[in-house]
Amino acid sequence: MTTDTKARARPAAVILTPNAEARIADLMAQAPEGTIGVKLSTPRRGCSGLAYSVDYVTEEAKFDEKIETPGGTFYIDGASVLYLVGSTMDWVEDDFTAGFVFNNPNAKGSCGCGESFTV
Question: What is the mean predicted confidence (pLDDT) over 21-36?
Answer without folding.
Answer: 96
